[in-house]
Amino acid sequence: MFENKVCVVTGAGSGIGQATAIEFAERGAKLAILDRDQEGLKATSTMLAGKDRDTLSLTVDVNQASKVEAAFTRIDETFGRIDFVVANAGISGSPEDGLTADMPLETWHKIIGVNLNGAFYTAKFGLKQMLNSGDGGVIVFISSIMGQISNPGISPYVASKHAVVGLSKTIAAEYGAQNIRSLAVAPGFIETPMTDIITQDEAILGGVLAMTPMARTGKAQEVASFIATLCSEDASFVSGGYYPVDGGYLAT
Ligand SMILES: NC(=O)c1ccc[n+]([C@@H]2O[C@H](COP(=O)([O-])OP(=O)(O)OC[C@H]3O[C@@H](n4cnc5c(N)ncnc54)[C@H](O)[C@@H]3O)[C@@H](O)[C@H]2O)c1
Hints:
A 7-stranded parallel sheet has the order 3-2-1-4-5-6-9, with helices on both faces. The chain has 8 helices and 9 strands. The radius of gyration is 17 Å and the shape is globular. By secondary structure, it is an alpha/beta fold. The longest helix is centred in the middle third of the chain and has 29 residues, at 105-133. The protein has one domain (6-190, 219-251): Rossmann fold (3-Layer(aba) Sandwich). The structure holds nicotinamide-adenine-dinucleotide (NAD). Nicotinamide-adenine-dinucleotide (NAD) binds at residues 10-11, 13-17, 35-37, 40, 60-63, 88-91, 114, 118, 142, 144, 187, 189-190, 192-195.
């Protein structure tokens, strides 16, 4: 389905990003996987090696614009085109960081730096190359259910996840005529290292499950397959929206 297509995934060394890279490879795409964690990238590369797809693995901190730009230059030199960009790299907040009046500036800048600035750099340099190829493409931002609602104590996370929805809508409006679609996918509670703190605490997990109509957490694979479907021709007129993958959480 994605034969001769090139997919870039940030934060591909773990969780949703790793599952997304594998999903796209299984559907025939070539992969450029980016992460700041070299070990995670190595693990994903090993999994991709079994899929027999061309893979470029780049250790990059998405919060460093010049490094992200250099990575996209490498991707262009390697593959000569980019079809899909999944801006997935992210870090979470912790309620222990404090309410907004007490939020340390350092924490604010760290989370906004990765989740918003990093997503912006990824989209900006990805778009440049999509526009050069003239074949269109799809940008997917991994937002969150926190892109629509809030939770006390994690204001930078909530703000960053709302912000990428606005960025995605703007890109959809700016580049629709070039056949570039832009989408925001909003995972609910998905089992990844990011949510270990929730899934390993029975009381917290119980609270989450009580608020989730499907009464379970999701798997990274369930987000990955939805991202791939949104990037496919099955969703060829889908752009600018916000798409929860949350077992019904936002419906209640
Ligand atoms: N797991 C969930 O329940 C959930 C829910 C909503 C949204 N999300 C979002 O999904 C995305 C993926 O999260 P996950 O659950 O797979 O988490 P994860 O911690 O398993 O994976 C995140 C990956 O991003 C990488 N990363 C972090 N900062 C980076 C940086 N500055 N530069 C490059 N790479 C960096 C990490 O090294 C890691 O490999 C995040 O944006 C997260 O906010 C996750």
